Amino acid sequence: MDHASLRIFLQLADVLHFGATSRVCNISPSALSRQIQRLEEVVGHRLFDRDNRTVRLTDAGKLFRRYARSELELWRGFAEELEREETVLHGEISIYCSVTASLSMLPNALAAFRAAAPVVRIRLQTGDAGSAVEKVMAGDVDFGVSALPASVPEGLVFHHLAEVKLVFVVPKATWAFSEEVGSADPLPWEKIPLILGQSGVARERVDEWLRRQGIRPDIYARVAGNEGILSMVALGCGAGVVPEPVLTESSLKQDLLRLEVAHPPEPYQVGVCARESRIKNRLQGAFWAALQGAAK
C-alpha cells in the first residue's frame, strides 16, 4: 500500500467529492475511482458509500482514515529523523602540529568544530612542526600546523593563524657562560654555543640573521623540535632560538632567560595547511569552515 494512494484517499475523505479530489491530486476521475477500488480490495471493506449526488465514509472508511493519517505521520517523522541523521557529521579528522600549537593556536578552532560536530573524532599527532607540510602532502594527515613555506607546494592551501617572532634564550642559572661573554656588548656570538632547529622556516630565518650579522656560529646541536631546544638550553648546553609561543607555553620558562637582540630575525607566518582536494570532502571541509569562523 503506497503512500501516494493513502494521500489520495485522505484528500477524498476530507472533501467527499470525486471531481474536486481528481483536480487537486491531478488525477483523472476514472483513475481516482480505480485507486479507491484497489484500496477497498486490499482492506476488504467498502471505504465510501456513494451515489450520484453524495459521497460518505463508511465505518470502515473512518477507521482506515485514522490508520492512513497515522501511517503518513510515522513516515514523515522517519523521513525527518533520517534527514537530521544525514546532516550529523561522522568520522575522523587528523591534525599534525607541535605541542605548542596544540596549546596556543588550535583551541578556538577545535572548540568551534567540536560544537558543530560533537561525534567526530579528532586525532591529534604532535611532533616537529617542520614535518607538517610533508605529512599533509603525503596524505598521512588531513591538516598540519606549519610555518608558511617560501614556496607553497601546488595543491596546498593555507589558513593564517598568527605571526610568530623568534626569540633567543639562555639558561638562567648558568648565564653567562663566562663573565666575559655575559657582560659583553654586543655579545660575542662566536663564543656562545648555539642550539638550533634542524630545518624549517624558523631555522632559515635564524641562518639569515646570522649571515646578516656576519656571525660564524658555534653550533652545539641541531635539534628536531623546539621543545627539545629549550630542554638543552635549560641544561646549560648553550643558547637557543625558538618561536616566542614555544617559550611562553613551556614548563621550563622559569629556568630560562630571554635575550633581547638588536634587529632580531624576521618573524614568520604560521597557519593550518591542507591539500585543496581534501577540504572538498564534507567532513574536512567542515573543519576548514570552523577555522574560518574562529578567525572572525
CATH class of the largest domain: Alpha Beta
Count of DSSP-assigned helices: 12
Tell me the overall shape: rod-shaped
Distance between the termini: 53 Å
- In terms of per-residue confidence, which ranges show pLDDT below 50 for 5 or more consecutive residues? none
CATH superfamily annotation of the largest domain: Periplasmic binding protein-like II
Largest sheet: 5 strands, mixed
Q: Please give the radius of gyration in angstroms.
A: 35 Å
Q: CATH topology of the largest domain, anyone?
A: D-Maltodextrin-Binding Protein, domain 2
Give, in spatial order, the strands making up the sheet with the most strands.
4-3-5-12-6
What is the CATH architecture descriptor of the largest domain? 3-Layer(aba) Sandwich
Short description:
The protein has 3 domains: 3-87, Winged helix-like DNA-binding domain superfamily/Winged helix DNA-binding domain (Arc Repressor Mutant, subunit A, Orthogonal Bundle), CATH 1.10.10.10; 92-162 and 269-294, D-Maltodextrin-Binding Protein, domain 2 (3-Layer(aba) Sandwich), CATH 3.40.190.10; 166-266, D-Maltodextrin-Binding Protein, domain 2, CATH 3.40.190.10. The protein is 45% helix and 22% strand. The protein is built from 12 helices and 12 strands.
Provide the fold topology.
Blueprint: H1 3-15, H2 18-24, H3 29-43, E1 48-50, E2 55-57, H4 59-87, E3 92-97, H5 99-104, H6 107-116, E4 121-126, H7 132-137, E5 143-147, E6 156-164, E7 166-171, H8 179-183, E8 193-197, H9 201-213, E9 218-223, H10 226-234, E10 239-243, H11 244-249, E11 256-259, E12 268-275, H12 282-294
Parallel strand pairs: 3-4, 3-5, 8-9, 8-10
Antiparallel strand pairs: 1-2, 5-12, 6-12, 7-10, 7-11
Helix pairs in contact: 1-2, 1-4, 2-3, 6-12
